[in-house]
Design a protein that fits this description.
By secondary structure, the chain is an all-alpha fold. 52% of the residues lie in helices and 3% in strands. It has 13 helices and four strands. A two-stranded antiparallel ribbon has the order 1-2. Strands 3-4 form a two-stranded antiparallel sheet. Strand 1 and strand 2 form a beta hairpin.
Length: 378
């Protein structure tokens, strides 16, 4: 069979110019609008989109040297008290925010323990032959590294248990073995019945990059020892991925929904992926002194490009729908601009938080002088 369906790509909206003001004050204003919009829209379920949002709100508070917001703590308590239903690895995602909040609110450990018990005992947990957690039976997805893997890592740090931290690292490596392209370092969205489908979905690349940098930051904090070989391998896979993404990035900063500009999706921009990838790039440059300079430059460009899509009400617009694994590239062309998407809000907050930390860490030197648009980014 041959022939691409270009109907969506040909009618893609033109890119917005990147945001020009990335000062800390401007970033805080954007972040506060994103948070307000997120709560006004509502986070109804103990599920993955909510988990991405909660962690984004927490990261934004941390970047401002503030405690976990009371609204996050109240949300976690209310959902635990009303009963958490756990039936999928996606239900682990809110557990990361609960673990961070538990430092000052130890009663939240009860919710964490419930998640851990399900993960340890549920027959619904399946694995690929190499040990990678399956998102659905017979399918390994990039999403799982963030929804379940990051939870495992933070649980290990909370309990000072090197085995759990190692399990997080093992998941990153096992997913990379299946999903990371050996030549480019980009990640496919997923595999189906043992076959990797080489669709380089932007948000999937964001999930993997953010998960890997979470591991590097955990290792740098030094509260739990990590295996040096595992750390080196994860560092290598992350730098290979981010270097390629930097090379593929357009001047306006926002990658197409499939980051390699596959013809059916070329020009269909997806700012939530740019927000997540940009956050990962800036955080990688903070945690790795030897990070290639093109990575933080691309990170700032991605943040500037993604935050241009935050409307006055605080919604990150043009975010792709909740996306299951697609058998053909055209399936990734669905952009939902009719409502706020929680994963979009959360990833935008990750971007704001990373940019604030980058300013604090001296990475603002990677920003261009004067104008932040057009050739000034070169």
């Amino acid at each position: 069979m041959s022939g691409d369906d270009l109907t969506s790509a040909l009618h893609a909206a033109p890119p917005l110019p990147p945001r020009t003001d990335l000062s800390p004050a401007a970033l805080i204003d954007v972040g506060e609008r994103l948070v307000a919009r997120t709560w006004s829209t509502g986070l109804p379920s103990w599920f993955w989109g909510e988990g991405v949002c909660l962690l984004g709100i927490v990261r934004f508070a941390e970047a401002r040297h503030r405690p976990v917001p009371a609204a996050v703590v109240d949300w976690l308590r209310q959902h635990h008290d009303s009963g958490i239903s756990v039936s999928h690895v996606n239900n682990l995602a809110p557990g990361t925010a609960a673990l961070i909040a538990a430092t000052d609110h130890p009663d939240l450990v009860a919710a964490v323990d419930l998640l851990d018990q399900w993960f340890a005992q549920s027959p619904l947990i399946t694995r690929a032959p190499n040990g990678a957690l399956e998102h659905w039976p017979d399918g390994v997805w990039a999403d799982t590294t963030f929804m379940a893997g990051v939870f495992l890592g933070h649980l290990g740090e909370h309990r000072r248990d090197p085995r759990l931290v190692a399990a997080f690292g093992e998941q990153l490596l096992a997913h990379a073995d299946i999903l990371q392209h050996p030549d480019t370092g980009l990640f496919a969205h997923g595999s189906h019945r043992g076959h990797t489908l080489w669709n380089f979905w932007g948000r999937g690349n964001a999930w993997c990059a953010l998960s890997a940098v979470e591991y590097l930051e955990l290792a740098a904090r030094g509260r739990v020892p990590v295996d040096d070989d595992q750390l080196d391998r994860i560092t290598d896979l992350l730098l290979r991925q981010l270097t390629t993404l930097a090379a593929l990035q357009p001047d306006h900063g926002v990658w197409s929904v499939l980051v390699d500009n596959q013809p059916e999706n070329a020009g269909i921009l997806e700012p939530s992926a740019a927000a997540g990838i940009g956050a990962a790039m800036l955080r990688t440059a903070i945690v790795l002194p030897h990070c290639p300079p093109e990575i933080p430059r691309a990170g700032w460009r991605a943040v500037a490009g993604a935050l241009a899509y935050v409307d006055p009400a605080g919604t990150l617009t043009r975010v792709s729908a909740g996306t299951v694994l697609q058998l053909i590239p055209f399936g990734y062309s669905v952009i939902r601009n009719d409502r706020s998407q929680p994963w979009g809000q959360g990833l935008a907050l990750h971007a704001v938080a990373a940019a604030l930390l980058a300013h604090e860490s001296g990475l603002s030197a990677a920003l261009p002088r004067g104008s932040h648009t057009g050739s000034a980014w070169e």
